[in-house]
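[step 3/7] fold_predict: job queued, chain A
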Amino acid sequence: MELGLRAIERQQITPLIREKAQSRGGEQSAAYYQQLGQMTGAQAFIAGSIGKGRHGGASNMTVRLIDAKSGDIIRLADFACADWDDAFKVGQRACRGLITGKGE
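[step 4/7] structure written:
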């Protein structure tokens, strides 16, 4: 799968965003990403989570590259973060690594 980046208008996915906000159950099912892929025409999605450390700062980040056709996880990366500012920098590197397939 060749991955390019394309911005998606939020209005295109508002119904699914509402559904996700109501579920608040953490990770979404494969069917969720398949439906989102059909609505947007995307080939893949990047999804992740940031864990909170003992003193309120970020401590770890998990980022997944998810195939929109199957809903399967293509790549997964876990990173440690020093604080919230570091989490944003780590997140950018993680996303680049997932898209290119090259870990940093």
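[step 5/7] annotate
The helical segments are 10-23, 30-40, 84-100.
The CA atoms of residues 18 and 24 lie 10 Å apart.
exit 0
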